[in-house]
């Protein structure tokens, strides 16, 4: 996709999702996937939060994923977003 965009002299950005759809992979797998996405030309990285850890109250793991994902983005001048699968949460968990 990046080659096509460059050949067209377009400023279109490429975004991808890391660890879709459930965010259950370990941190090493997420790091590998993010680095591969960057190598393949991704401009935006949307990390899927490990919502099972979130639901279980393992905030330390969620924070670590946010920190590492953000560091990867900053190191490569990429936009990073965190996705929380709200549909998998109860109303109480959302509030």
UniProtKB/TrEMBL annotation:
Give the highest taxon in the source lineage: Bacteria
Q: Return the InterPro entries for the record.
A: Aldolase_TIM (IPR013785), DeoC (IPR011343)
List the molecular function annotations (GO) for this entry: deoxyribose-phosphate aldolase activity
The processes (GO biological process) annotated in the record are: carbohydrate catabolic process; deoxyribonucleotide catabolic process
Gene3D superfamilies found in the cross-reference section: Aldolase class I (3.20.20.70)
Q: Its GO CC terms?
A: cytoplasm
Q: What is this protein called?
A: Deoxyribose-phosphate aldolase
Annotated source species: Flavobacterium circumlabens
Source taxonomy: Bacteria, Pseudomonadati, Bacteroidota, Flavobacteriia, Flavobacteriales
């Amino acid at each position: 996709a990046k080659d096509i965009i460059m050949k067209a002299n377009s400023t279109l950005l490429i975004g991808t999702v890391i660890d879709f759809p459930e965010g259950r992979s370990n941190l090493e797998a997420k790091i590998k996937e993010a680095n591969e996405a960057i190598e393949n030309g991704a401009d935006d990285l949307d990390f899927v939060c490990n919502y099972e850890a979130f639901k279980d109250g393992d905030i330390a793991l969620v924070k670590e994923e946010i920190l590492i994902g953000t560091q990867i983005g900053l190191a490569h001048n990429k936009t990073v977003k965190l996705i929380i699968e709200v549909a998998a949460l109860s109303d109480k968990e959302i509030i």
